[in-house]
Design a protein that fits this description.
Structural class: alpha/beta
Number of strands: 60
Length: about 750
């Protein structure tokens, strides 16, 4: 648990009203009897400060009730008083005083022991002239001094640990009794030292009693001022839980013989209680935390999974962190202090690679085992956390002087991994990388399945922003900017609402049947979108002012370049141009240099490109619809009815053409077959539940809109391998309501509206 601090200021004065400059002031946890008199009931840890030459203090305190003690440089102590520190950000000393006498505490026991020690010393001095009996009195003085040290030890222990435990209060009382006994015995020794040494023996016994009381006080305490203090302690058998102050946190533990988080000097092991943190295993600021983070992850996996919590600070590592099954890494958020320039600094919850480590930072991979199945592989992810590759302190994209290798996040042959609000920054290779993996045992390569990434920023990396190959998933609101190669290299999709900006090479490289829906690609060094695959859909995207590296080839300065090997490309509802007010570096809007490529261009805004808006090598396999400038392109010829103006197969003037698609729709056993139709009106009188969608992708657009024309409800059932619905829940259409799907692969369709 982390407490917010209160800044306390004020002037300290003596009982006669005179100021107390340059005196030591101790804010000590108030004893149990004092707690509850103010607004706070917490028992904070002690703080010691000095007043300045004007007797002022300025100190940050955890909320709670304190006993305040002052000591002048010459050793004089002033009467203690109580303060009640509030939970607000600031307070003045005068406003938080509790006008009550400070209750008796273990410090009073220590003072009594000091009196006993002095009395015994006086007895020894008196007995020096009495001969051998003086030896006994000297022994009494020594024993009483031991009593003083023991009682003072109780006080110091109570300051160091949480003083609000009933056991500590009991121990303090026993210490006071022991000290009083020592004082009484010392006085008796002073009176009769010349006659007998019996009293010296009694004083020694009193000192032993004080030592036993001190041991009892230590056993009663359950809060340790540091991890080292616990590791050096002898923990009693009845201590089932305790708290350790470490790295600015109060960390709770429970006794666990199999615990891996902490171990005392007598072998008492502990496991975390409540939120699990790397600090439970000893992670500390400024030092390599890889082993502690990995130990925490391994322990969580053994418990069946859970969250590993990261505070808002940097966690340096010099080795790869491997995330295991059902484990989540969760921080407190991240942010930039800068504007993505050389001065940009990322802060918040960060896993940071140490210089010279040259390794991946975070790896998602299951344990290798024969016969690994999709269900067995891995569930988990990362939320609200940053990954800092520290390739260089220079923000230049090619600089790798601190780390020359290492990806930010790597996933291999795993499934059901979520990234949410994650930043990957300045890695020497790709920011986020996904691919297949061979776990052995004859299983072969296993791809990554059912990925769910959203709100992920990958920026300032020397390689690609995102590498997505070997699997399937849903990727939304991903941003790749200022990377040394491509923003995205994708063999899987769809990508929804993603952005690629100011990358050194391409914005997007699509090498498999993926889709881009509502994505942006702008200000990239090479082309905005490079398509080298079949069945790719670009729908509702903005592709603007790319080719900023101004290379000589048109393909490197195109908005969309359709490469050899591409086929059945749908480009619908996009804006492809140079942004007004910027240097027009994008030469061609849509470029295809290969004959025989089937392209369907719908209603796009393709304009203001410096050489040509559309450059299609083979129009016989292209379908052009929508608004096209007069004389700019020849259509391949088609049969139509209605008012379409044609002149020698040239579109005479711009026309906004609309059409309605009607056709035979089949429904049987939950399977809705829409053929090559894009818009479907379902009129099933009795209502129905749709579990699967089939369509003729080769002849139609892989985008289907279904509208319920019946009064009966039409239900679409969610399944990851059939119909993937938003939020993973079924959708019921009332009359005249509609739903929109885009084809992903095989029998998988993704709801997009």
């Amino acid at each position: 648990m982390t407490f917010h601090l209160c800044q306390v200021t004020g002037t300290l004065v003596a009982p006669d009203g005179s100021p107390l400059p340059e005196v030591q002031v101790q804010f000590l946890p108030a004893p149990v009897s004092a707690r509850g008199v103010g607004a706070q009931t917490l028992a904070p840890h002690p703080v010691s400060v000095l007043t300045d030459p004007e007797a002022r203090i300025d100190v940050a305190l955890t909320p709670g009730v304190y006993s305040v003690r002052t000591r002048a440089p010459e050793g004089r102590e002033y009467p203690p008083f109580l303060v009640d520190v509030p939970g607000g950000p600031v307070a003045t000393l005068a406003d938080i005083l509790l006008h009550l006498p400070a209750p008796q505490s273990v410090y009073d026991a220590a003072a009594s022991a000091r009196v006993a020690s002095k009395a015994a010393a006086d007895a020894a001095g008196s007995a020096a002239a009495a001969g051998t009996a003086g030896d006994s009195a000297t022994a009494a003085a020594t024993s009483a001094a031991a009593a003083e040290m023991s009682a003072q030890g109780i006080a110091d222990t109570a300051v160091q640990v949480q003083a609000d435990r009933a056991g500590a209060t009991l121990a303090a009382g026993q210490a006071q009794t022991a000290a009083s006994t020592a004082q009484s015995q010392a006085q008796t020794a002073s009176a009769s030292a010349v006659q007998s040494g019996v009293h010296a023996t009694t004083a020694t016994m009193a000192a032993v009693t004080a030592e036993q009381a001190a041991a009892l006080a230590e056993a009663s305490n359950r809060t340790f001022a540091s991890r080292a203090a616990f590791e050096a302690a002898q923990i009693p058998a009845d201590a089932d839980s305790w708290t350790v102050l470490h790295a600015g946190l109060r960390l709770a533990y429970r006794r666990d013989a199999a615990g891996t988080a902490i171990e005392s000097a007598n072998g008492t092991r502990g496991a975390p209680v409540g939120g699990v943190r790397p600090e439970h295993w000893g992670a500390a600021p400024g030092v390599d935390c890889a082993a502690q983070i990995q130990a925490a992850i391994d322990w969580l996996e053994a418990q069946g999974g859970g969250e590993l919590l990261f505070a808002a600070r940097s966690y340096p590592i010099a080795a790869t962190i491997r995330v295991r099954r059902n484990v989540w890494l969760r921080g407190e958020g991240w942010h930039f202090e800068g504007d993505f320039t050389n001065s940009a600094v990322i802060t918040g919850s960060l896993i940071e690679l140490q210089p010279g480590a040259n390794c991946d930072l975070v790896l998602f991979r299951a344990d290798p085992a024969p016969g690994v199945t999709v269900r067995q592989r891995l569930h988990g992810g990362m939320r609200d956390i940053g990954v800092f590759g520290r390739r260089s302190n220079n923000f230049a994209r090619a600089a790798v002087d601190l780390n020359a290798a290492g990806r930010g996040i790597r996933m291999e042959g795993v499934s059901y991994v979520t990234l949410d609000n994650v930043c990957v920054f300045r890695c020497a290779e790709a920011g986020v990388s996904l691919g297949s993996f061979d776990y052995g045992g004859g299983v072969g390569l296993l791809s990554c399945n059912n990925m769910n990434w959203r709100n992920v920023l990958s920026t300032g990396n020397a390689g690609d922003g995102f590498e997505i190959f070997g699997g399937d998933g849903t990727y939304s609101q991903l941003v790749a900017g200022f990377n040394g190669r491509h923003g995205f290299r994708v063999g899987d999709g769809p990508l929804v609402g993603c952005k690629a900006w100011n990358n050194a090479e391409r914005g997007f490289t699509i090498s498999s049947n993926a889709g881009m829906i509502g994505c942006d690609s702008y200000d990239n060094g090479h082309c905005g979108v490079h398509v080298a695959a079949k069945d790719v859909r670009l729908i509702g995207c903005e592709i603007r002012t790319n080719g900023t590296a101004q290379l000589p080839n048109a393909r490197d300065r195109a908005g969309v370049f359709i490469a050899s090997g591409a086929q059945d490309i749908v480009i619908e509802g996009n804006t492809v141009d140079n942004k007004p007010g910027k240097t027009p570096t994008q030469q061609v809007g849509v470029l295809c240099e290969t004959a025989g490529v089937r392209i369907m261009l719908g209603t796009n805004v393709v304009q203001d490109n410096t050489l040509a808006n559309l450059a299609i090598a083979d129009l016989t396999t292209a379908q052009l619809h929508g608004s096209v400038p007069a004389g700019d392109l020849r259509h391949p010829g088609f049969t139509a009815t209605g008012n379409i103006d044609l002149d020698d197969r040239v579109l005479a003037r711009a026309k906004g053409m609309t059409f309605s698609v009607w056709g035979n729709v089949t429904f049987s056993n939950g399977v809705l077959g829409v053929g090559a139709n894009t818009v479907v009106f379902a009129n099933i009188a009795a209502g129905a539940t749709v579990t699967e969608l089939t369509a003729d992708i080769s002849r139609g657009i892989p985008l289907v809109i279904v509208r319920n024309a019946s009064a009966a409800p039409l239900i679409f059932q969610h399944a990851n391998n059939r119909l993937r619905l938003v939020g993973g829940v079924d959708r019921t259409l009332a009359r005249n309501e509609a739903i929109m799907f885009v084809w992903v692969t095989g029998s998988i369709w993704q709801q997009i509206g």
